[in-house]
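[job 0417] fold request received: DUF1549 domain-containing protein
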Amino acid sequence: PRVVTLPPAENGRNHPIDRLLDSDLAKRGESLPPSVSDSVFLRRATLDSNGLLPTPAALEAFVANQASDKREQMIEQLLAKDVAYADHWLTTWNDLLRNDYTGTGFITGGRKQITPWLYAALRENKPYDDLVRELISPSADSTGFIDGIQWRGDVNASQSREIQFAQNVSQVFLGINMKCASCHDSFVDRWTLSEAYNLAAIYAEKPLELNRCDKPTGKMAEPKWIFPELGDIDPDASKTQRLKQLAKLMTHPENGRFTRTLV
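[job 0417] inference complete; emitting structure tokens
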């Protein structure tokens, strides 16, 4: 979970994104491309922030504005439209968190919706690390994401709620695909069956037996965090305390995987 070290600033461009881009361009021997036109800038900024095109009147006024900091001013104006921002980004986060899933096998009531909490979090611009901590170690309003989906009838071991928990927190917050490792040691990555089940055991209410390709192995999982260099989970703690520990480890300042995944 390495933390990215920012390269030195070039030509007074000290913003972290500029420093990363300038360093990458220098390595490739390329020059910084010219800035986009005012009309292109406004179109992109408006679409990204609230999903809507700027009105013709807003576009004309922006292009005619001669202020040297008009782009910075426009960004602040767009971000101040908290309702439009939340309306637009709610769809993205509903998808990422599987909050809107109603597909085959979904049982009505088998998945607690967190839309009111999520909408409020987006509208108030809740810091990302706080948002993630509240999803992993939830309140009554934010619980739902970690509980996964209650499928209809019997399902294979890799679709239990405990394993869904391991798959979802690793995919959404770390960019790690644990689905392969949920059945057997991954063929496409470094992750093992034991690591997937140990992560799932943090959420489990009772001892969790490893299943390889849906066959019980007789081995029991132990609640463990996948990056022990950042800390670990107390296996004797209650489920509530284990989730609090995981939330802290996930958002640890040295967990570069967490920040890189968001970017």
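[job 0417] notes: Residues 126 and 242 are 23 Å apart (CA to CA). The chain has a mean pLDDT of 94.
[job 0417] exit 0
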